[in-house]
Amino acid sequence: MLVLLAGIFLLHITTFILLLAATIENAWWVGNGFSTDIWARWVLNGQQWNYTDLPAHYPAGKHIIFYIYKFNLSLCLSLSGLCIMIAASIYTDIFHKNEIIGNYGPSFILAWIAFALSFISCVIYFVLRKKNT
Hints:
- It is found in: Membrane.
- It comes from Astyanax mexicanus.
- It holds the Pfam family PMP22_Claudin.
- The structure is a single chain.
- The chain is of the alpha+beta class.
- Helix content is about 55%, strand content about 15%.
- It has a 5-stranded antiparallel sheet with strand order 4-3-2-1-5.
- Helix 1 packs antiparallel against helix 3 and helix 2 packs antiparallel against helix 3.
């Protein structure tokens, strides 16, 4: 039982680190000579990256913070995983509909991996909870 609780704790910590890395990393949408994070676009001029505003066709609420970090326990765990999934889905659907150039970057992939780990952690926690009652 102690090993399972330690495993759940490690899943929480891993998910938190992945979400932190996904939020900090400037690679949500990448292309040849540019990289877009959730706050701005970075453009490569020669050998220097320049900070620019997000493109005008992005939604009006440009400065969206996507994730509620996982310092949650018990019932909030499933809500946290749901928030991760909803935020990544909104980013997928709204932000890059009309862009032909570029791909989803590693931050986007880290966010979806964090959702999967959060979901697994939630299922394990509820199974253990049910087993104890």
